[in-house]
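Quick log. Single chain, no ligands specified.
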Amino acid sequence: MENLKRVFMTVLLLVLAGFAGVDIEQSVRNLSSPDAKVREEARERLEEVGEGAEEALIRAIPDLAGDGRIVVIDLLSAIGSEDALGTIVVLALEEKEKEVRAAARRALRSNRSGVVDILLDELHGLYDDGIEIEIIGLLGMLRSGEAVGYLAGALLSKNDLVRKAATESLILIGLSRRSE
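-> predicted structure:
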């Protein structure tokens, strides 16, 4: 029933946005405008549309400059759906621009509960130690108690760097539990 309400509200928002003249695609493009006022208006419009703008925001990421991608990260974080958070996880792991990667990691911290499940799912069947190390680091950054089982298993890895990352993450999680 809750999903039905959410779908109804999303459709209602899209309809209202359409009647209000909100062009989602244009608003997303305006996030890269050199004019700060245009960027802010676009952000406000997209915040109002919310989930209805999610697909357009995700599609636009490769075409936006760093600052535009940071705004998209903030908007997707506010939406908080699995697709939105999954996109942020990918940016936190693979983004080349340091500021954008940092913004993605901040967004992950504000959406811990949904993100931990996504990260743990990513680890199943993963054969890339570099990505595994990054994900283990994110789990530590998130101070996720749910990840302790996986991290304990990673201590048995043949890769020294995976073991080191798991140890550091477990220490972070332990320290956060101690301070609670």
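Residues 16-21 have pLDDT under 50 and may be disordered.
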